[in-house]
Amino acid sequence: MVGIIKNILTFEEFLNWDDGSGRSFELINGVAMPLSEPTAKHEDVVDGLCRLLINHCQSLNLPYIPRQSKQVRLNTAALENESSRKADIVVFAKEEWERMRQSSASAAAYIPPPLVIEVVSTNWRDDYRIKLNEYEKLGVLEYWIVDYAGLGGVQYIGSPKQPTVTVNRLIDGEYQAERFQGETSIISPIFPQLKLTTVQIIAMTEA
């Protein structure tokens, strides 16, 4: 067991904090909480998908900058300690990324980004329930849940279980979900010209 660091930190303090262990952390109610290390296949999907989106944005000169493993500051009520999530992929607005390039502060989603992508691990309930509610409350316009191994509950990916990409669109303050499986093209309002299927994402684990 890795001990939880119990010093209360602000989001900015947390970004500059390092316990020297090399572990990844999230900020939960002001406390730095260690994260489990991802599997190789999980990293392959995150890396492959992020590179694909970077190339897509560059080729079409889109106003977005995709980046891996960035902290997203969550909404915090008055008098509550701050929290964040270390998202697998964050798609920043280009103007926000350029603003950060002019700053010495750590690169992170200080304001709601247009798109967040989480790749599902064994703790799939966090992605389908907890993080969905957090990103919805934050106002993230689009939230993808990439379940390349079909780990999620039947209520989220159907029966029989199979690899699924769920695109959650923020409409009137609430997420509306659409599932994509097999060779069905993923429909993304942020990336309307993107040609991508769940099968192609699965193939990223086999390269």
TrEMBL record:
Domain Putative restriction endonuclease: 11-197
Protein name according to UniProt: Uma2 family endonuclease
Molecular functions (GO terms): endonuclease activity
Pfam families: Uma2 (PF05685)
Family matches, as InterPro entries: Nuclease_put_TT1808 (IPR012296), Restrct_endonuc-II-like (IPR011335), Uma2 (IPR008538)
Keyword Nuclease: yes
This protein's UniProt keywords: Endonuclease, Hydrolase, Nuclease
Species for this entry: Floridaenema fluviatile BLCC-F154
Leader peptide range in chain numbering: none
Organism superkingdom: Bacteria
